[in-house]
């Protein structure tokens, strides 16, 4: 078996040049002298529970799983702030939200903050981005980009392009993002340079509109319910009970469950939000007549069945129906993501790029698939705090390895920079994952991570909170209009149903975790005063 030795040359003219030398029983021969390509794949709201490499009860994702089978699966990867645009800003800047300024989905990204692709581009990488960014402005540091405006559309989406303005393209977004990625690889890629590609899916974000080829299969499936589907939030503070993420109470009947507005009227079902019916009607308008006909051919009969069944359903059955309907569309969206990841991986194979390409698959955060009765994210509780992370780099990462160290999206920038042999900025706050990727766990000594969520009041009404998470415990402080603490014993209570903050048995843990939290707030330069209002004023927004 070959052993690889990594050597970085540092003379000025060679800064960043990455050299991979293969050593075989005393005979050292130079094998590659090129820097790796990097493919950063990220989906939007892709729960790890919906990747079969993590959990195979909901869906098979053979293509995404391939990355872990041929590389590393992180079972304890998490975000610092579980919401889309802030998570992306953390990933691109390598700084926590309170320092990069993108604390919520509403403020635009501060483009004076340097992102790691800018550094890669400066170091000679060819850079391209396709898909959903969600910064509220265009990315810097890209030779080419085609991005969805805002949240983007599933059908016939508009794209903001670097060279051709805003264009509308007919088709299904997940397929189109891959088409433009492959087209760029084929026609614009400069083989004399390493490349960085940001391949960013909109799917499986709300409102979960699948591709036509997946309608039929998924609408007839049924899925196992999570054990906490009927959580009543007893014993926890007000945040969980007051969040507006409940499948039955807060999910749109038309926009999300795809019940036709006229059937809602016939059954006397009120809108759950003011955009409930219009969400579906706007989606209808977006489709071509053929797309709409294909949709109605499958969703029409589902509506008829629902119309017949609804009058006899009790509350429990309604919740169960909502869960199945949600999973059918959410998972069908993932089926298209998985197929398209397969297309891109095959392209790398067929073009001799697999060997020298670092491939990362992740999501901007996790997502609730009915756990605690919820959809959406935002909370520090595991399903939205943890995020999928699968990484492949032949020759560096061994095949089929699992890593359970506590890593964060905060680490991604420094990881990719180190892989490329480019210096990180001093203000970046993560740690490169290279030691873990190389199997050198002894060089990794993080025992706790820090989390801070801000977007409240706002969509889904999840209260502001910050906290510290270790392998054993999770300590959380909900603040702003409340002052509530929660402690979870992650080993004994993995479903996080029992707040033990006031349990005398845990007094020692509370003390220890509180001082860890204070320490991390100093380390990451956060403080109790740095709340939403302060940051907005501080940033002059
Ligand atoms: C929209 C969705 C929310 C979702 C946010 C943020 N509502 O507002 O359910 O939490 O986006 O998502 S919808 O009615 O417009 O679908 S994020 O991924 O961008 O953070
Ligand atoms: Ca998201």
Overview of this protein structure:
The chain has 541 residues and is α/β, with parallel strands linked by helices. 32% of the residues lie in helices and 17% in strands. A ten-stranded mixed beta sheet has the order 10-9-8-7-11-4-12-13-5-14, with helices on both faces. It has a four-stranded antiparallel beta sheet with strand order 16-17-18-19, with helices on one face. Strands 1-2-3 form a three-stranded antiparallel beta sheet, with no helix packed on it. β9 (158-161) and β10 (165-168) form a beta hairpin. α5 (173-187) runs parallel beside α11 (315-350). 2-deoxy-6-O-sulfo-2-(sulfoamino)-alpha-D-glucopyranose binds at residues 44-45, 83-84, 105, 134, 151, 205-207, 275, 279, 376, 459-460.
Kindly summarize this structure in a few lines.
It contains 16 helices and 19 strands. The protein is α/β, with parallel strands linked by helices and 541 residues long. Among the domains are: 212-328, no CATH class; 452-539, Arylsulfatase, C-terminal domain, CATH 3.30.1120.
